């Protein structure tokens, strides 16, 4: 299988969050600074007309040795079921790619100010997309009950 090699960060996350703990991301404010060598401010034209953005980023601080490829207990909590890595949103993913929806506070030049982005300071951002309700799931969303407990303090 051919590896994808042409993914270049479009920018980086700047915030006060340095630790990799899994909870309390809701009040975190961040600035995503776009790379001025690749973009001018017109790349963000009218992004501020949206209330939320989806941010795709590289979980760069997860060591390759910690990558999970099979099943595990989420957050290593044996009270929660053993589930496959693709049946959870843990950071130790095979390609270490994270996706987050967060509130867009404002756009200033090449800076995107957001709230609730679950990425630590220095995180490489791979893509930014406006969140559109038409891309929300259609129909009823179903998830296991253990997810409610896991996510109780996440945001």
UniProtKB/TrEMBL annotation:
Keyword vocabulary terms for this entry: Methyltransferase, S-adenosyl-L-methionine, Transferase
Pfam families linked: TrmO_N
InterPro entries named in the record: TrmO-like_N (IPR023370), YaeB-like (IPR040372), YaeB-like_sf (IPR036413), YaeB_N_sf (IPR036414)
Methyltransferase listed as a keyword: yes
Record GO terms (molecular function): methyltransferase activity
Segments forming domain TsaA-like: 7-140
Lineage top rank: taxon: Bacteria
Gene3D superfamilies noted in UniProt: YaeB-like
GO biological process: methylation
Family according to the record: Belongs to the tRNA methyltransferase O family.
Protein name: SAM-dependent methyltransferase
Organism, as annotated: Streptomyces erythrochromogenes
Source taxonomy: Bacteria, Bacillati, Actinomycetota, Actinomycetes, Kitasatosporales
